[in-house]
Structure formats: C-alpha cells, structure tokens
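Please, structure for the following, as tokens.
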Amino acid sequence: MFSGIVAACGRIERIDPLQDGVRLTVDVADLDLSDVQLGDSIANSGVCLTVIATDGPRVQFDVSRETLNCTAGLDAVGNEVNLEKALRLADRLGGHLVTGHVDGVGEVVRFAPVGESHDLVIRAPAALAGYIARKGSVTVNGVSLTVNRVEGTEFSINLIPHTVAVTNLKHLQAGNRVNLEIDLIARYCERLLAWREESAQ
C-alpha cells in the first residue's frame, strides 16, 4: 500500500529480457534504501514492483509481460520513474490510499502553465471515467492528485510547482501515456452497489 507521495525520481538504466517479461535496473538516486530489503515493494510510476536485488543506488525489479502490456513508462532505458516505498503503519497518509495496481493508461490532452501552476488534462479509458469525480482523488504515474474538473472521459488537475518539480510529470506532453489508478473507495462502492443489485434478483 502507498500514499501517492513521491519520495524521489529514478531512471531506468537497463532492461534485460526474461522469458515472460523483463528485469529492470533502476538508479533510484536519492531514495533512502537503508530500510529496504529483498522482497520489499517500491512503486515505480504507480506500478508496485518487488525488489529482487540492490547494488548501491541501483535496484532491480522483475516485470511480467502482463504488467508491461497494461502500463506505461517501464519499457525504455532512460525513462524517469516516480519512486515511493511501501507505507508502514506509522507513516502519515499525505495523499490517499494507493495500491500500486494500475487500472488503465490515460492519454495527456493538455499540459500547460497557468500562472505559477500547470493545468493537466487527461483522457481516461471509458471503463475508468465513471470512477473519476470532481474533488476526488486519482493517481497519475504514482502521484496522488485532486481532480478539479470532469467532462466526459476527460478530467483536469492543477499541479502546483512543487509537484511538477519533484516528479516526472514535468516531462509530460500532449499525446503521452500515463498510468492511472482510481480511488480505492470508489472501487469498493461500485462493487457494493453491484452486489446489492445481484442479491436482489
């Protein structure tokens, strides 16, 4: 479980093919690894991955073909990734509850400065659009963000300068693909309502 508060930006240094996926070597830069052990989880741009090896600031992760097929940004050397270690029970929940399981890939429609901030407009897959609500939470590339406006399948977010500076969102351009995770509470509410309807039949 994560909070969507990015701790550092890393960079994919190497991608080695596996039988059904790849092994990523990520330079995690300033991410504190003093309490990280083999088997721990670290989110890479919103994708929960398991640490399989460490060598100084370099961490290796195995990524399945299924994960590569339903996410963005883990398939090219040089890509910058947002990093967050899994939450401990004593940690502050600065963002919202994030599982690290990407629900779908959205497309950037607009990313432009507005005053000192940036306006980010994303087109969500139709299957996810109903879960995204004005003033609700959504995770974009592992970053917990608040939705300002929703129109059909498109939603907009105001990014403050700090968020732009410390995450890989600063590199976004129209047409880019981003990892989306819907709010966990919305997911359970939908399932509860569906179950009530099924039970009533």
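The radius of gyration is 17 Å. The mean pLDDT is 95.
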